[in-house]
Amino acid sequence: MLLTTLMLIPLVGSIVVFLLPAAKATLAKQIALGFALATLVGSVLMVLGLDNSSGGLQHVESYDWIPAFGISWTLGVNGISAALIVMAAILVPVVIVAGWWDAENSGRGTVKGFFALILALEVFIIGVFTANDLFLFYVFFEAMLFPIYFLIGRFGGPQRAYAAMKFLLYSLVGGLFMLAALIGLYVVSSRELGQGTFDYVTLTSLNIDPATQKMLFLGFFFAFAVKAPMVPFHTWLPDATAEATPGTSTLLVGVLDKVGTFGMLHFLLPIFPEASKFYAPVIIVLAVISIFYGALLAIGQTDVMRLVAFTSISHFGFIVLGIFVMTSQGLSGSSFYMVNHGFSTGALFLVMGYLVSRRGSKRIADFGGVQKVAPILTGVFLLSGLSGLALPGMSSFISEFLVLAGTYAVNPTAAIIATLGIVMAAVYILWLYQRMMTGVPSKEVEETVTEISRRELVAIAPVLAIIIALGFVPQVALNVINPAVDQVQTYVGVTDPESAVVIEGSGS
Predict the structure, then answer these.
(1) What are the pLDDT tens digits along the chain (508 aa)?
(2) How many Å apart are CA 316 and CA 291, to the nearest integer?
(3) Spatial separation of the C-alpha atoms in residues 18 and 9, rounded to whole Å
(4) Which of 208, 374, 479, 485 sits at a 20 to 30 Å CA gap from 300?
(5) Is 485 helix (H, G, I), strand (E, B) or coil?
(6) Which residues neighbour 169 within 8 Å (Cβ) at sequence distance 6 or greater?
(7) Which helix (H) or strand (E) holds 325?
C-alpha cells in the first residue's frame, strides 16, 4: 500500500485545501506546504526501501479494478520511476514556497484553488510514474492535463486562454493516438493469451510480430513525442510557459514533460523492442534536430520565458537521443538527465520569475545591469544558467557526457553533431547573462529590481544544492537508476558494442 498511500497524501491535501473558506488564504498555503512536505518524506522512504541489486519493479501492489477487461490497479516502481517521483516531490514544495504570492499577483481565481490544483497535479504525477497497468497509465496521463490547464488558464498571463487551450488540444490529440494503440495492444494480447490484458509485465513477455509492433509503436510514440516535446510537436510549449506562472512552468517542463521520455523508456522499448530498433535511426535524427532547433530558437528570443522553454526542447533532444541509441551509457545518461533537467530548468524558471515579478516585464531588453542592484539574485541566476549549459561540476554535465559517450559508441556522427549543441547552449546562456545582468542599470531597473528575499532564497537554495551535489556525487542517483537501465536492455535484447565507454557507476 506504500505507493497508493503516497498518492493519497497529496489527494487528501488537495481536498482539504479546496474545502477551506476562500478568506483563509494563508492557512491554505500552509496546509498545502505541509502535505507537500509529507509527500516528500514518503517518497524518500520509498526510495530507501528499494533493493538496488534488482532492476525489476518493486513496491508492487495490484488489485482488480475492471477484471472483465483485464484492467487492474497495479502500481510499482523501478529505479528510474522512483528517481523521477523524488524529483517531483522535491519540486512541488519548492514551487509552493517560491510561488507563495502567485495567486494573489495574478488577480484571478482563489488562493485555495491555486494550491489545491498543485496538490491534485502531484497526485497524477505520482500515478503516471507508478502505474504498471497501461490503461491505468492512460487514465493518469490524461487526468494530469486538467490541473495544468486550469493553472495556466486561470492564473496565467494575458494570453492564458489561448496557451491553455493549445496545450490541452495538443495533449488530447496525442492521447487519442495512444488510446487507439492501447486498444490495438489489448486485441493483440487477447489473441496471444486468450484474454486481453493491460498488465505491463505480461505485455513485455508477448511475442508481437514486427509489423504489428511498428503500427502500435507509432500511436504511443506520437503521444509521448507531443508530451516530451520533440520537434515538430513542440509548438505548444513556448506559448504555455510564456503565459503560465513560473511555478506552473517549473512543474510543466520540469516534471510533466518527463512523462513523454519516461514513456519511451519504460513502455516503448520493453513492449515493442523490434519496432524501437527499426525506428531508432529516424528518431535519432529527430532528436538531433530538436537539439539544434531548440538551441537556435533560444538564441533568437526576446521573451525570457520563451527562451527557457526553447532550451528545454534542446535538452529533451539529448534525452531522446540517449534513449534510442540503447547503450547502457546512453540510457543511464537519459534517465539521469530527466532528473537533472527537472532541477536545472526549474531553477531557471523560478529565478526568471523572481526577475519578471520585480520588473513587470518578460522582455530581455527591459533588463540590464541587474548585478549592480541585486548581486545575490544575479549569483543565483548564474548558477542556474551554468547548470543549464552543463558546466563541469554540475549534475547536468554528467548526464550530457553519458548520453554523448553512449551515442558515440553506435553513431559517432550523431554524437559529434549533438556536441555542437552544447556550444550553442553556452551561447544562449552566457549571452542572456550579459544582456540581463551586466552593464549599467536603467532607471527602471534601479527602481523596480530588488535583492532576492529570504523566502525566495529558501525556495531555490535546495534545488541549487542538489544540482551541485549530484555533479560531484552522481553515483547517489546512478546506483538507483542503473539496475533499471540494465533491465530495459534485457527487454530490448541489446548489449553495448565493444567500443562503448564504460564508466564506473554509469551502467553495466
Answers:
(1) 899 999 999 999 999 999 999 899 999 999 999 999 999 999 999 999 999 888 889 999 999 999 989 899 999 999 999 999 999 999 999 999 999 998 888 778 899 999 999 999 999 999 999 999 999 999 999 999 999 999 999 998 889 999 999 999 999 999 999 999 999 999 999 999 988 999 999 999 998 999 999 999 999 999 999 998 898 888 899 999 989 999 999 999 999 989 999 999 999 999 999 999 999 999 999 999 999 999 999 988 899 999 999 999 999 999 999 999 999 999 999 999 999 999 999 999 999 999 999 998 999 999 989 999 999 999 999 999 999 888 888 999 999 999 999 999 999 999 999 988 888 888 888 889 999 999 899 999 999 999 999 999 999 999 999 999 999 999 999 999 999 999 999 999 888 886 555 544 444 4
(2) 7
(3) 14
(4) 374
(5) helix
(6) none
(7) helix 304-325
For cell 542599470, the residue is 441
Contacts of 2 (CB under 8 A, 6+ apart): 42, 45, 46, 49, 59, 61
Residues with Cβ < 8 Å from 490, sequence gap 6 or more? 55
CA distance 223 to 227: 6
Q: What is the DSSP string of 386-454?
A: HHHTT-TTSHHHHHHHHHHHHHHHH-HHHHHHHHHHHHHHHHHHHHHHHHHHSSPPPHHHHHH--PPPH
Where do the structural domains in the chain lie, given as residue ranges?
Answer: 2-492
- Give the Cα separation of 210 and 332 in Å (integer): 27
Cell of 69: 477487461
SS (H, E, C) 236-296: HHHHHHHHCCHHHHHHHHHHHCHHHHHHHHHHHHHHCHHHHHHHHHHHHHHHHHHHHHHHH
CA atoms of 254 and 11, how far apart (whole Å): 21
Q: What is the dihedral of CA 49, 52, 57, 62, to 10 degrees?
A: -20
Beta bridge partners of 71: 66
Q: How far apart are CA 417 and CA 255, in angstroms?
A: 27
Contact between 6 and 41 under an 8 Å Cβ cutoff? The reply is: no
